[in-house]
Every structure is written in C-alpha cells, then in structure tokens.
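Appendix B. Extra example for self-study. Work through it before the problem class; the solution is given directly after the inputs so you can check yourself.
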Amino acid sequence: AQSVTQLGSHVSVSEGALVLLRCNYSSSVPPYLFWYVQYPNQGLQLLLKYTSAATLVKGINGFEAEFKKSETSFHLTKPSAHMSDAAEYFCAVSDRSNDYKLSFGAGTTVTVRA
Amino acid sequence: DTGVSQNPRHKITKRGQNVTFRCDPISEHNRLYWYRQTLGQGPEFLTYFQNEAQLEKSRLLSDRFSAERPKGSFSTLEIQRTEQGDSAMYLCASSLQGGRGPGANVLTFGAGSRLTVL
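Solution. Structure tokens for the complete assembly:
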C-alpha cells in the first residue's frame, strides 16, 4: 500500500524567507503525488499535483514541488513566504494499485513571523 | 460548476443521537469519497463510490456508519448512536475516474462537516 511521511509537524518561517516542506512517499507503482493546503475550519484546497509528466510542478500561490524518484521525495517550496501562507499543508499519494484513493500524511503546520 | 458542497457545516449533538451529512459532488464526477479528519491529523479514508456503487469501506467505518449514493449524484453519511469519539471533520471529495485530461483522478474536496458529540 502507498503512504507518505511528512517530516516536521511544525515549520516557522519569517516573512520573505524560503518555505520548505518535506514529503517522502512509498509506492510500489508509479505514484500520483499531491500537496493540499487547509486553512482553519475549511476543507482542503489543491496546491499542485504530479501525475507523471514534468518532474518540477508549479502550483498556485507561488508554490512548486519537485518529484525525485531516486529519493522518493516530493518536497514543497516557495521562495518567499507571505503572511497568508500560514496554514496546514498535507502531502498525499495515490496510484492505480489502490484505485487512486488518496493517502495523506499527518500534515505540517506553517506559521509565518512578521 | 459550484464545487463540492457539504451540509451542514457544523453539527453539535448529544451522545446517542443519530446524525446525517450530505455531500453534493461536482456534477460530472463519477467518484465520490468520504474522509474523516481529527484534530492535528491528516484525513483518513472512510469509503468511496463509483456512481451509485459503494466500492470499498475502511475498517474505520463501524456498523454505526452507513453511506449511500442512491442515484449516483449526492451522497449521505449517517452515524447512528453517536459517540464522543465520532467528533471530527467529515470531508467529502469527488473526482472523474478515467479519462486523460489534467483533472482525471484528482480529488476535489468540499469544505467539510464538523461534528461535535457532547
């Protein structure tokens, strides 16, 4: 079965600094990988997805992620943090062996310091 | 396309009562999923439908839980004899299974229904 591990449950960055959220996946077949963002008391919003096309994926709000098969990683980055980036971020994986059901990591909470 | 709609957004109930949540997916989506999310955790899969057929139920879905999607459109999730441990956010998502477009097999989530059992 596929799974993801998010390294670090909390990340604190200064406004304007680099945001780096780490995600490693496990999958026996080529995976689809996703990053979702969740603001307080809201549902999940898709930031970006990797579905076997380009390995560097650009998403909304200036985020991007790179699929590295050799490292089984899909880390999320943003060059310059904004106060509005404060939220919880979830990495997720799906693949055809599990009929494309999503499996989520435990999440990383991002706080942005002024 | 109005996205995935969930109602009610919040429900407070007493232990032992029954509750029902409704999910209206994106109209052209044939797949519908239910997830549960507790505080500080990632969403956990509960069950999913392909059109009106329920394809899989997680072990998290006890006998007190039942989900339906009678006409392959909206879905309901009912919890009978609620317990305090049922307090969580219940998330619904839909997707278009198959096809080769950029949205194929990508889940779109609703805003969730938060349940508090007193």
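Self-check: The first strand of chain A starts at residue 3 and ends at 7. If your reasoning did not lead you there, revisit section 3.
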